[in-house]
Input
Amino acid sequence: QVHFVESGGGLVQPGGSLLLSCTVSGFNIASYDMSWFRQTPGNERELVQIVSRDLLSFEKGRFTASRDNNKNTLYLQMNMLKPEDTAVYFCNAGSDPRTSVFGSWGQGTQVTVSS
Output
């Protein structure tokens, strides 16, 4: 059975940083492109960052997604956070925010950026 357990969210001031983690069980993340997604109330889930199976990390703008294949864990380092980054953050395999490759999503971790 596939499980995603996201953690590391919280309340942070604008300009601050957070490191999110996603521990995966049920499949080997080394064999998959892995992504972070986020969702705000009333809106569809959106793709935040992808790290392909060929990379250990990928930086895009303020966010860096990385993976530790030995720990089967995905990370998202978020810097210079803005209020519009407030959302519930999820990880999953693939890059389609509308569906999960394995048919399941974790509970997500809440990130709130506010002064």
